[in-house]
Amino acid sequence: MAWQIDLSGRGALVTGAASGIGKAIALQLGSMGARLALLDINEEGLEATRREVLAQGSGEPFCMPGDLALERHVVRAVDSSLHQLGEIQILVNSHGILRRTPFTAIQSDEWDLVMGVNLRACFLLCKNVLPHMRERRGGVIVNVASLAGRSCSLLGGAHYTVAKHGLVGLSRHLAREFAPSGIRVNAFCPGATMTPMVTECTPQDELERLSASIPRGRIATPEEQARVVGFLVSDAAVNITGACIDSNGGTIML
Ligand SMILES: NC(=O)c1ccc[n+]([C@@H]2O[C@H](COP(=O)([O-])OP(=O)(O)OC[C@H]3O[C@@H](n4cnc5c(N)ncnc54)[C@H](O)[C@@H]3O)[C@@H](O)[C@H]2O)c1
What domains does the chain contain, in order, with CATH numbers? Predict the structure, then answer.
């Protein structure tokens, strides 16, 4: 039986689309034919992604700046995206922040910030999109977690590791609860990837040591990660739900 990897006409909401993996996912899904709604706190970066999506011939994406840690911004962003796209068949949560603070130096407001952006915002996005997906009896969600959600963060602090473990748990739970409604939910767990999240807080010599520690011998590109997400949201992955898909060059094998 022929299977579809084409996303023509499907409405896709991508968070964290101003930079790194989220930006590459927006371009990847756009190249597969999806109609895009892009969210990020970084308005300037979002505008740059908008121009690149247009330039590659993937149509005009709907872009909405906002802080996804704030419930009212999530509600407004999902409502506006639904209004613009007509429907949301795909949700990819790729926004996130990393803090490298050693455990005993983490203040409770930094703990709350990392949990708020990396976990609570994903809960809010799923909560606002799922009723709509359930109504139309279909949809697919990919939560971009991390190798940190499978094992332990290579760079981030304990709060990052805990939030990503939570995101893996949320994805598994939602997969079970919503499978009868035709909705798939998976966690995507990248290993080290060359994005501003990593390069901005890591000196060159540490980046080189990190590369050398990866069995594949190098840090992944955001485009390599985005292609995996393109597969996961396509009909080719129709039987994959509740999974954690690792893409880490052999760093961990669970
Ligand atoms: N780069 C890596 O090595 C790596 C590895 C594993 C997992 N990840 C995960 O991949 C995802 C993407 O990270 P990246 O490497 O592309 O980083 P990045 O910093 O390049 O991109 C993250 C994006 O999230 C946005 N963002 C941050 N806080 C936000 C908020 N409150 N509201 C809305 N948008 C917000 C940022 O503006 C940025 O555009 C994150 O969830 C990250 O934890 C990254």
Answer: 11-247 (3.40.50.720)
